[in-house]
Amino acid sequence: MKDLANGSIVRHILAMTPPIMAGMISIMVCQLVDLYFVSGLGDAAVAGVAAAGNAGFLVSALMQVLGVGTVALIAHAVGRKDRPDANLIFNQAVALSVLFGVLTLVAGALLARAYMRSVAADQATIEAGTTYLLWFMPALALEFVMQVTASALRATGIVRPAMLVRVVAVVINIALAPVLISGWGTGYALGVAGAGLASSIAVAIGALMLLVYFRKVERYVAFNPAQWRPQPRHLMRILNVGLPAGGEFAMMFIFMAVVYYVLRDFGAAAQAGFGIGQRVLGLIQMPALAVALAAGPIAGQNVGAGNGARVRETFVKSALITSAVMVGFMMLAQLKPELLLAGFSNDRETMEIAYLFLRIISLNMVAQGLIFTCSSMFQGLGNTKPVLLSSATRVFTYSLPAIWLSTRPGFRMEHVWYLSIAATTLQAASSLWLLRREFGRRLVLPPPEQAMEPSGSEVAPPARASAL
């Protein structure tokens, strides 16, 4: 366990960010590897895998419910030095992870084809996306256990083991993808099914490794089957924090589904170009997201310790670092997008769309970085309802106008990207306002009469966090 309520905040952020980023990049690289090898199968295969991957946002919403609730409550317990509560929350989250994993497998089997029919441009894309989803669902189901164990470690300030497991998993995926997709060395190509199967095998091995590490090495929280029996009060504690954060990912699913819907009249090349550009955009946003995720446990432990001044300081410093990182990658996307997109498709039309998308959408990267930071701070505070509210603002200010514009004469796909910039900027502004309001409510400054000693000399007691 690492004490994040003391010491340099910047040092804590910089120490936690690289392992978090490596773990997240490994996940994104798995998806990019799938797209890279699937691109040889044609535009329909690329569009199908990209559109199917969007369904992962719904599963990610459930993962966020568990991950955010686990991080926030365990971090608060660590800050209070309440180890029994940290263990109870962890084991209740483990029980939920098993339930959510089973639900994911059932939903994938029943709904994969219906989802692809609603967003795909043609029958070939529907078939490719459905096949990929069915083989990819085991990976998503196993991610729940990995999410809970990694979140428990992150709440206690430990991030390196989860990162190492992720890196191993992505190496396995990279090794398996060409073998299973293209039939390298075997002569038996599985196509898009091989892409999903490679990911599922890699995640299964990664989950096993993380569980072995957790049982043998981790000491602050531990598996306790006696605490797996559902306890409604503690399950509600997790869900009260996690559900709004999960709703944020559900909103993102709606957002992305609307994009695929309004692009489908432009054909599979447009959807494929967007899919490639979106994955690359997600990859270059990872460093800023990692900084934001590092700030969450720091804020959470300081909330538990009652140190409101450090909570505010955590936000300011993480926001500055995030903005600086986003400016750098925005300039790269504006000046050299070909460096980021090289090798993903040989189709000229697909790549032209990807270049256009990345150049335009990268303009909102600073705003997106502030959204990441605010979201992580709300998680640290233990109140994620404002996150859901700001996400809903973005979805509604984007989705309805986008659908309306798609019905108008002269509609062009770049209209979708410019509208996205406006909606993202509005979400960033609303997130900052909501966070300022939440700070005012939950972080109580000392009364003026306590800010001075009897002699009149100033003292600087830390601001205290109010009870959550």
Radius of gyration: 22 Å
Number of helices: 15
Following the backbone from N to C, one meets helices and strands in this order, namely HHHHHHHHHHHHHHHEE
| β-strand number | 2
Percent of sequence in beta strands:
under 5%
Give the mean pLDDT: 82
Task: Report on the biggest sheet.
Answer: 2 strands, antiparallel
* Main structural class: mainly alpha
Describe this protein with a few key phrases:
single chain, 468 residues, mainly alpha, two-stranded antiparallel ribbon
List the helices and strands and how they pair.
Layout: H1 9-38, H2 43-54, H3 56-80, H4 83-119, H5 123-155, H6 160-182, H7 192-216, H8 232-263, H9 268-304, H10 308-335, H11 337-341, H12 348-361, H13 365-381, H14 385-406, H15 413-442, E1 443-444, E2 464-465
Antiparallel strand pairs: 1-2
Care to describe what's here?
- The two termini are 23 Å apart.
- A two-stranded antiparallel ribbon has the order 1-2.
- It is globular.
- The model is unreliable at 446-468 (pLDDT under 50).
- The longest helix has 37 residues, at 83-119.
- It has helices at residues 9-38, 43-54, 56-80, 83-119, 123-155, 160-182, 192-216, 232-263, 268-304, 308-335, 337-341, 348-361, 365-381, 385-406, 413-442, and strands at 443-444, 464-465.
- It contains 15 helices and 2 strands.
- It is 79% helix and 1% strand.
- It is an all-alpha fold.
